[in-house]
Each structure stands twice: as C-alpha cells, then as structure tokens.
Design a protein that fits this description.
alpha/beta, eight-stranded mixed beta sheet, about 35% helix
Length: about 425
C-alpha cells in the first residue's frame, strides 16, 4: 500500500492533489486542520489529508465493525406466493405477526387468523376458500401500510378464489405485460373482479379501473425537501452505482432553493476519492458545508457541529447486497440514538428478483423509505409496484436523469399508476 500525506488550503484542493497523485481509487485515511508554520496566531488554517492506494496485486483492508456496537435487528423476510390477498397487500406492518422460530406453528397461526376473518364475513364461498387455503404450503404476508385518509380503500369481504387451469384473465395479462409479477397481478385482478360490476367490465373500462386500484397500493413518504418540526437527518444507502451521491445533491438543492432549508452534507464514502470529490464539488457550487466522516465517533461530532441545520443529508458508500458484513458496518454509523432516517436507493432498471434481494439484505439497516433512480432508463415500471407491495416502506422520491435538481420527482400515486399503465396506450 502506498500512503502519502497531502497539505492544501481547503479540502477541495487536497482532493484534487490526491486524485492527480494517487488516482480516483484512492481512499482517505485521516483528515485534520493545521496552522501554517511561522505565522503565529495569524496563520491561515490548512487541511492535512492522509490518503492511500493499493499497490498492484494488493487489496486494501476493510474497516472492522465496532464489536461494542449494539446488534442490529434482523431484516424482515419477504415471502411470495400466488395466493396473496388484497387485504394482505394493504395490511399495516403492526398487524403482521412476528415470525416464529417454528415455521409450522407460524403457518397454523396465520391460517387461524385468516379463517377467523372469513367466519366473520360468512358467504357461500367460505367453504371452498377454506379448502384452497388448506392446500397452501405457505401464506404470503403483505406489508404495505394503509393508504392515507385521502384515498380510502374498500377491500372485498373475501378474496376471490381463481379457478385452477383457467387461462390468465385480461387484467393479469395487462399487468404482467407492464412488468408486474404474476402473483401481484392475480391479487389485483381478484380485487377488481370482486367489486360491483367488476365481472362485467367493458374492454375500455379495464385499464382505468385497474389503474385506480394500482394507485391505492402506492404509499408515499414524507417529502424530505420540505421543512419539518426539528432537524431531519436522512442517509441514502444502497448498492453501488445507483446514484446515491447525485440524489443527495438533488435533495440538497431542492431543499435549499425551493424550501429555504439550511442544509449540511456528510459523506462516509471514503473508499473512493472520486466520490468525496464529487460531493465536495456539489457543496462548493451550492455553498453548503461538507463533512468527511471516517468513524462513528466522527459522525457524532459532525452531527453536533451542524445541530443548527434544518436538514442533514448523509451519503454512503455503495454496498453489494451480498456483502452483509459491509452493510452491517454502515449500521455502526447510522444506528444508535442518532435519529437518522435511512432511505434505500435502488435503480428502477434492476431486475425484479435482484430488487427483492436488495430489500431483504439492506433490511438490517431498518430503512424508512425507498428511492428509485434511473427512471429514464426504463421501458416498464411494474418493478416499482412489485417492490412497494412486498415491503412496509413508502416511496420517498424518484429521479429520472442526471440534472441537479431538475430530475428529482416527488412521488404522486396517480402519476406513478399512470407510469405503470400509461394512459396513451388506451384505445380511443
């Protein structure tokens, strides 16, 4: 490993020197502010940065997590099945029973709950539906929170059982053509068909009716760019290359220019000097303070220095969903009593199975919202719906390009439903 100390008037100049000498893959080992020698108390402070780059054939050692830090909660397992009910898609996380160690006992408890609900709304279909449930190997639990009061949902009293060996309905075909997974599409189809007149929809009524149902399944989170009571601290986490740093800049620009918030930026992405330099450039352009944090203790110090700010945005290094150790390491910076909201950032053009695994693996960081990026690179948007209905997480924001902050979109359920089922595809 090649280690070198750089001195400059400011952090931006130091980063440029590091990049020119060691290259963009260098990492920062330490930073400190020093006084210029020979000028006494009138000497201007300078920045001293120690950086390193691995030699050919060497691998830089990963930071070891703090063994004294509290253990993070296990990520909630996301289950799938073709017989998901609309009620279960809408169920609040608080009403979902905690997973039991004994899978059989958990399944029996779930069956009792569903059968209890059915007995309270007895209809001629109860017996047939109970037989179908008895044949299931496992039941899926939908974790999406209830919709806001402005968009009430009237769910059917019983899920409509779909006959076996029947060709997919027009609703299922419509949704799967736009990237919606079959089990989600079947649930939506059963719900639509259970509504008054749902079995007799004319061809021109199918798409608008399905779009309205999709809209009710999209939960939107709090707008980060708007002022709130007290300081908000938001960290963006996720896989490599999904656009976390650019999204941080977009959120900062929107919060500052549109809402007049006082903003500070923090980065713990010190594995690539180019990432730190990129955020520093955004900070210089917007005249915002940028903190480079190397340890959890430095995170606490940085948060304390900016306690007068309305919004603190935290950029993190990309982590592979398979690297659970590195993901857990992020928890040492973001967990505890720091009151940091963690948003999981994912690219909308990622395959659906990989999105699901990403949500599962990053679940140990207890994310409070989802950010989808790169909408401009997608042909269909069904993956957004698939992800939202399988988690308890609301949609925080969307991005559809590289421009800052123009390509930042605040999610509107009606607009997202129209993206999934475009209006311009309807026949006149």
């Amino acid at each position: 490993m090649q280690v070198k100390v750089f001195e400059a008037d400011d952090m931006t100049t130091a980063l440029k020197k590091i990049k020119a000498t060691l290259g963009p893959e260098a990492i920062i080992l330490s930073t400190k502010t020093v006084k210029k020698r020979g000028l006494g108390v009138f000497g201007a402070p300078t920045v001293e940065v120690t950086a390193a780059i691995d030699e050919a054939g060497q691998v830089l050692p990963a930071r070891k997590p703090n063994p004294l830090a509290s253990r993070l909660d296990r990520p909630q397992k996301i289950r799938t099945d073709d017989d998901l009910t609309y009620d279960e898609l809408r169920r609040s996380p608080a009403s979902v029973p905690a997973p039991a160690d004994d899978g059989l006992a958990r399944e029996v408890a779930e069956l009792k709950q569903i059968l209890s609900r059915q007995e309270q709304t007895a209809t001629p279909e109860v017996g047939a539906l109970r037989q179908e449930i008895d044949q299931l190997k496992s039941l899926i639990q939908g974790l999406t929170p209830p919709a806001p009061a402005s968009t009430p949902i009237v769910a059917p009293s019983l899920p409509l059982a779909e006959p076996q060996n029947e060709r997919p309905s027009a609703i299922v075909e419509l949704l799967t053509e736009h990237g919606v997974q079959p089990q989600v599409a079947k649930t939506i189809a059963r719900y639509v068909q259970a509504q008054p007149g749902g079995q007799d929809l004319a061809e021109h009524q199918v798409r608008p009716t399905v779009r309205q149902t999709v809209q009710t399944l999209i939960q939107v989170g709090t707008d980060v760019t708007l002022p709130s009571e007290g300081q908000r601290r938001v960290a963006l986490v996720g896989p490599t290359g999904v656009g976390k740093t650019t999204t941080v800049a977009k959120l900062a620009a929107a919060a500052m220019s549109q809402a007049g918030q006082r903003v500070a930026l923090i980065t713990i992405d010190t594995y690539r000097i180019a990432a730190v330099e990129q955020l520093n450039v955004y900070g210089d352009i917007m005249n915002l303070p940028v903190e480079v944090v190397l340890t959890p203790d430095e995170m606490d110090q940085a948060l304390a220095r900016h306690r007068d700010k309305d919004l603190i945005l935290i950029d993190t290094a990309g982590r592979s969903p398979r690297d659970t150790g590195r993901i857990e390491e992020l928890g040492q910076f973001l967990g505890g009593d720091r009151k940091i909201d963690t948003c999981l950032v994912m690219s909308a053009n990622t395959r659906d199975a990989e999105l699901q695994k990403t949500v599962e693996r990053f679940g140990q960081l207890s994310p409070t919202g989802i950010v989808f990026t790169k909408l401009d690179e997608c042909e269909t948007f069904g993956a957004l719906l698939n992800t939202l209905v399988r988690t308890s997480l609301p949609l925080t924001c969307l991005t559809n390009g590289q421009r800052v902050p123009e390509d930042l979109l605040q999610p509107v359920p009606e607009q997202i439903a129209a993206m999934i089922l475009p209006v311009d595809e309807e026949r006149p």
